[in-house]
Design goal:
Helicase, Ruva Protein, domain 3, N-terminal domain of MutM-like DNA repair proteins, four-stranded antiparallel beta sheet, binds zinc ion
Length: 273
């Protein structure tokens, strides 16, 4: 699933390609297989009326949500979930295309989604789409105090806490594992057991892991592509994620995989305590 660095990379591509452009048409290809509406909380014709003719004034991101700000004062919100992508290159239309937006300069944006978990919303405010999200981890709002409060007295594993979008927005499985490694914390540890020093280390390592992802244009373990259809390179720079059975770069101990809160979790049993 695209996480903060991947969604932010896509946002940058969308901003460059779409700012000032007017949506001239929307095509929703027939839904093959088990039908799942790509447009959420609204019927297709109402959505179409709301977006066609609207100009994109800017593109922002909140957690893993992409927000196209329209000149009608409404927002087109996109969540890619597991396998969604927004692609611009001319490509043969495949059966996973869920929506095609055309713009006044002739460009087309295809929303492709193999698993169909992603969606499109037209809203006046992001609160219509999602429950409250925690602070953006790369913003000043993500303070040491906010992380300390998120873990304090919690009997949940540290990994589950930092994956909770209501606590911190934008972290997923890749960067949660990398952040725990960076802080030297076993991802199964309960939040309440972290010392002040460990909270400080985790706060820094969350930011370091996400910044590394951004610097490498995101991680393409499977489906992730940027708006140009290109892969990122973060998958070549991870320390533990999907390195099960390989030696730790720091101590050469074999990286292990366990389940934490139902999620595959990778860690070094020697470096992480
Ligand atoms: Zn190690």
């Amino acid at each position: 699933m695209p996480e903060l660095p991947e969604v932010e990379t896509i946002r940058q591509g969308l901003e460059q390609r779409l700012t000032g452009r007017t949506i001239t048409s929307l095509r929703i290809p027939p839904d093959r297989g088990k039908p799942v509406p790509v447009i959420k909380k609204m019927d297709e014709s109402t959505f179409r009326e709301g977006v066609v003719g609207a100009r994109v004034e800017g593109v922002s991101r909140r957690g893993k949500y992409l927000v196209l700000h329209l000149d009608t004062n409404r927002m087109l919100v996109i969540h890619l979930r597991m396998t969604g992508a927004l692609l611009f290159p001319e490509a043969p239309e495949d059966r996973f295309v869920r929506a095609i937006f055309s713009f006044d300069d002739g460009t087309e944006m295809r929303f492709t989604d193999v698993r169909k978990f992603g969606g499109l919303w037209l809203a006046d405010d992001l609160s219509e789409v999602t429950t409250d999200l925690g602070p953006e981890p790369l913003s000043e709002g993500f303070t040491l105090a906010s992380l300390a409060a998120a873990v304090a007295k919690r009997k949940a594993p540290v990994k589950s806490i930092i994956l909770d979008q209501r606590r911190i927005a934008g972290i997923g499985n890749i960067y949660a594992d990398e952040a725990c490694f960076g802080a030297g914390i076993d991802p199964r540890r309960l939040g309440m057991t972290l010392s002040e020093e460990e909270v400080l280390a985790l706060h820094a390592s969350i930011r370091t892991a996400l910044m590394a992802g951004l610097d490498h244009g995101g991680a393409s373990f499977r489906d992730y592509r940027n708006t140009g259809g290109d892969v990122g390179s973060m998958q070549q720079h991870v320390k533990v994620f999907r390195r099960t059975g390989k030696p730790c770069y720091t101590c050469e101990t074999v990286i292990e995989r366990v389940k934490v809160g139902g999620r595959s979790t990778h860690f070094c049993p020697k470096c992480q305590r």
